[in-house]
Specification:
This protein is of the alpha/beta class. It folds into 2 domains: about 90 residues, Rossmann fold; about 120 residues, Rossmann fold (3-Layer(aba) Sandwich). Helix content is about 40%, strand content about 15%. The protein contains 10 helices and 11 strands. Strand 5, helix 7 and strand 6 form a beta-alpha-beta unit. The N and C termini lie far apart (about 55 Å). The protein binds nicotinamide-adenine-dinucleotide. The site of nicotinamide-adenine-dinucleotide (NAD) has 25 residues, from helix 10.
Length: about 290
């Protein structure tokens, strides 16, 4: 059996088309959604990710700007930049591109981004709202995965879902979003004793460990929907996910490719959150 591809690139294009219409409505009402991206240093992958987000803004009619800071800038410079953007009326979303250089406490700095402009969903108030079952801005990678599963009509309620990885950015919020949709969820980490014992019962398997080829075909339940979040660069320069794609595609019913699966959906959700933030701003202005 060859799995159907969870084609994130194609679904992201559909999302952009819908967002473009919402942007037009906002612009007609005098509000152009605006996204500010902050990059500290010049981490090569971060530069690529920011360019993708800026391109997606252009495609949907969202205004964007990049704030480039030196990698050795003091924390006060970064906080001052965030503060200025928090008060900027034309900016509705602020994106602090991770990773930050070592001397910054990224988790703490994220808390200085205004909750209503936190389009990454990493502010603890937004994460707390997700825990409480009242989500507002949710982290973009798991939101994109949910949107992808919904687009392919994958039933979540009542299914066994297994998330490999428990990071605050991906694994934990992914588990919470699956719980909110009434899946029975297991969350694995690097200390999990027998990973296969969990992966092999998963109707929905989300792998976000950052370990190339961690999940092989024999670890997958036949017919499962498998979402590969990992992005790993191999010594020969090729990019691969955490799942053995060739093997998994013979066992899974649905499988996301790397690249072209989760990555484009993550970018699309950043833009979606920015448009939502602008809509909220427009409603508050009209009230
Ligand atoms: P992270 O390093 O913060 O967390 C990795 C998690 O995987 C940890 O909880 C760790 O305990 C777990 N883990 C590691 N080895 C394991 C093993 N052998 N068995 C079980 N669990 C194991 O990483 P992250 O930020 O969550 O990202 C994970 C991967 O997803 C990375 O490759 C990253 O590049 C990628 N990523 C992709 C996107 C996208 O848009 N496609 C977005 C974010 C992250």
């Amino acid at each position: 059996m060859a799995a159907t591809l969870l084609d994130g690139a194609a679904v992201a294009r559909e999302v952009y088309s819908q967002l473009g219409q919402r942007v037009q409505t906002l612009v007609a009402a005098g509000v152009r959604p605006g996204l500010a991206a902050i990059q500290v240093g010049n981490h090569a992958a971060s530069t690529i990710y920011i360019r993708r987000k800026v391109k997606a803004c252009a495609e949907t009619g969202v205004y964007s700007e990049i704030h480039q800071l030196e990698s050795d800038c003091p924390e006060s410079t970064l906080l001052a930049t965030i503060d200025k953007l928090n008060h900027h009326r034309g900016i509705h979303g602020i994106l602090l591109q991770l990773p930050l250089p070592q001397h910054f406490d990224a988790g703490r700095i994220m808390q200085s981004i205004a909750v209503e402009k936190d389009v990454d969903g990493f502010n603890w108030q937004n994460l707390g709202a997700l825990v409480a079952g009242r989500p507002r801005f949710t982290p973009c990678t798991p939101s994109g995965i949910i949107a992808l599963l919904e687009r392919y009509e994958v039933r979540i309620e009542g299914r066994n879902a297994v998330v490999v990885g428990r990071s605050t950015e991906v694994g934990k919020p992914m588990a919470l979003m699956l719980i909110a949709r009434s899946a029975t969820v297991s969350v694995c980490n690097s200390k999990t004793r027998d990973l296969r014992q969990f992966t092999s019962i998963a109707d929905i398997l989300v792998v976000a460990a950052g370990r190339p080829l961690l999940v092989t075909a024999d670890m997958i339940k036949p017919g499962a929907a498998v979402v590969d979040v990992g992005i790993n660069r191999l010594p020969d320069g090729r990019v691969c996910g955490d799942v053995d794609f060739a093997g998994a595609s013979q066992v899974a019913s649905l499988l996301s490719p790397v690249p072209g699966g989760v990555g484009p959906m993550t970018v699309a959700m950043v833009i979606a959150n920015t448009v939502s933030a602008a809509e909220h701003h427009a409603q508050a202005r009209a009230a």
